[in-house]
Specification:
With 246 residues, this protein is an alpha/beta fold. It folds into 2 domains: 111 residues, Cobalt-precorrin-4 Transmethylase, domain 1 (3-Layer(aba) Sandwich), CATH 3.40.1010; 120 residues, 2-Layer Sandwich (Methyltransferase, Cobalt-precorrin-4 Transmethylase, Domain 2). The chain contains 7 helices and 10 strands. Helix 5 links the parallel strand 6 and strand 7. Helix 2 crosses helix 3.
């Protein structure tokens, strides 16, 4: 779109398999001038971008390289104001722990047209890829998705683990590999039975997918033995015992 009014499209790329990018997401990539991509976006889908498109990697590596969110916002706004179609490409859904809301607000405040293309959230697709439905008739009537980025005792944590322990819903934990032990211990301390089924799926939907099943009291040790690393999703609740896993 060079030469015309610029715009930003926030594209959720889904859980990892490029085949799970939506049709609208692919169409946005196919007419991009600039793609600002995250580490967990399905990078194989970047081949859909036109030859002239500039690809900028702003992926955050845990404990390593990181691009400040303010700088990312600046890239989006400056690119659009230069008359380019800017695609912000990230994994999952942009509005589920993806900072898409922050980016949309920044663009709107700068007077930049912004469109949101929803993505398949890993919070649902990850468990599904492991054979686990987050809801199941007779077992649970809801599910709760939380960030495990900080442990329960961290002063920045806003989660009520006592309420989560007694909620009676499936608990899906994203970004919780490092904090899983503390999360499970807190849930048990607040009354969740230690024998509650639990499952961890890493690299969901990819050929490298790994699934580990146990209970809330054993899942951390089992995941460590399996050398599970991020990105991984933990599922805690009766539904984690449904899948016929090896």
């Amino acid at each position: 779109m060079r030469g015309g009014p610029g715009r930003v499209t926030l594209v959720g790329g889904g859980p990892g398999d490029p085949g799970l990018v939506t049709v609208a997401g692919r169409e946005a990539l196919e007419c991009a001038d600039l793609v600002v991509a995250d580490r967990l976006a399905p990078l194989a889908a970047l081949r859909w971008a036109p030859a002239h498109a500039e690809i900028v990697d702003v992926g955050k590596i845990p404990g390593g390289r990181s691009t400040d969110q303010t700088e990312i916002n600046r890239m989006l706004i400056d690119g659009a104001k230069a008359g380019r179609h800017v695609v912000r490409f990230k994994g999952g859904d942009s509005f589920v722990f993806g900072r898409g809301g922050e980016e949309a607000v920044a663009c709107a405040r700068a007077g930049v047209e912004v469109r949101v293309v929803p993505g398949v959230s890993s919070s649902i697709a990850g468990p599904a890829a492991a054979g686990v439905p987050v809801t199941h008739r007779g077992l649970t009537q809801g599910f709760t998705v939380v960030s495990g980025h900080v442990p329960p005792d961290d002063p920045t944590s806003t989660l009520d683990y006592a309420a989560l322990a007694r909620a009676g819903t499936t608990l899906v934990v994203l970004m919780g590999v490092r904090t899983l032990e503390a999360i499970c211990e807190s849930l048990v301390d607040h009354g969740l039975p230690p024998g509650t089924p639990a499952l961890v799926v890493a690299d969901a939907t990819l050929p490298s997918q790994v699934r580990v099943r146990g209970t809330v009291s054993t899942i951390t040790e089992l995941s460590e033995k399996a050398q599970v690393g991020p990105p991984a999703i933990a599922v805690i609740g009766e539904v984690a015992d449904i899948a016929d896993l090896p």
